[in-house]
Amino acid sequence: MLLDNKTAVIYGGGGDIGGAMARGFAAEGARVFLAGRTQGKLDAVAGQIREAGGLAETALVDALDERAVDDYTASVAAQGGGIDISVNVITHQTLFTPLLGMPADDFAASFQRIAKTFLITTKAAARHMTKQGSGVILHFGGSDNVPSPGLGNVQITFDLIESMRRQWGCELGPHGVRVVTLRTGGIPESLPDTEEMAPHRQSMIDSTQLKRAATLADVGHVAAFVASDRGRTLTSTQVNISCGALVD
Asked: How many CB atoms lie within 10 A of CB 233?
């Protein structure tokens, strides 16, 4: 297995993307620690992993609370013998309002939240990874530097995360720690299966070159590969799994 004896921490582990990565890691032998704010969602993902024969633990952790994250990371490192993989996919505060009409306080608060949580969780993992001389920090979403009207803070948020990823990559690389982002261009099955959302789901498929979109299982498979030693040359970059929807 690709991730035998590895320890993975996933903030937002009860969500669609976090759950997909957790299942992918566990299927390749990793012990996964799912952190979040909704116990029921965490338990559902952990239950799926355990039913498949994997190892999963859950904990209620506020990824905006630095002390809580530091304590949790230290606990995971003590149990797992270190931290090999860290992922932050907590829900962003999305504001689909044109910038001309965007409330300044809401705009500023959304970036304070995302910058704070990514700094907190990455610092916590990096402390352990730099000591052991290895580790992988995965981001999700990516940036293509192509603005689109009506997205409000969404693309700018991804740009902020990518800027932090680039800085972390150059700072942590000399310590053997890799930092990589996965880009999908959208996952139809992560949207509500309703008549209202059907056109949006189809548009994600139609925008690809392969005429099929990435699935949650695809996210898990690629995340496991990137986090494994087979992906050891990948750092300070984005891995495009958009089926051609995002053209580099």
From this structure: 7
How many other β-carbons are positioned within 10 Å of the β-carbon of residue 132? 15
Whether 244 is covered by a domain: the verdict is no
In the block, residue with structure tokens 């506020």: 62
Distances from the Cα of 38 to the Cαs of 15, 50, 67, 74, 90, in angstroms?
10, 19, 19, 21, 11
CATH of the domain at 122: 3.40.50.720
The number of domains in the chain is 1
Q: Residue 43 is which amino acid?
A: D
247 in any annotated domain:
no
CA distances from 181 to 26, 137, 227 (A): 20, 9, 11
Amino acid at 36: G
Secondary structure tally for the chain: helices H, strands E: 7, 7
Alpha-carbon distances of 134 from 50, 79, 175, rounded to whole Å: 27, 17, 7
How far CA 84 is from CA of 134, 176, 202, 239, in Å, comes to: 7, 11, 37, 19
Contact predicate 144/101, CB 8 Å:
no
* pLDDT one-digit tens code per residue, 53-84: 999 999 999 999 999 999 999 999 999 999 99
Within-domain flag for 243: no
Give the DSSP per-residue string, 79-93: HHTS--EEEE-PPP-
What's the rounded mean pLDDT across residues 38-57? 97
Q: Give the structural domain span for 128.
A: 7-237
With CA atoms as reference, report the closest residue to 141 among 92, 174, 93.
92
Helix, strand, coil shares of the chain as percentages rounded to 5?
50, 15, 35
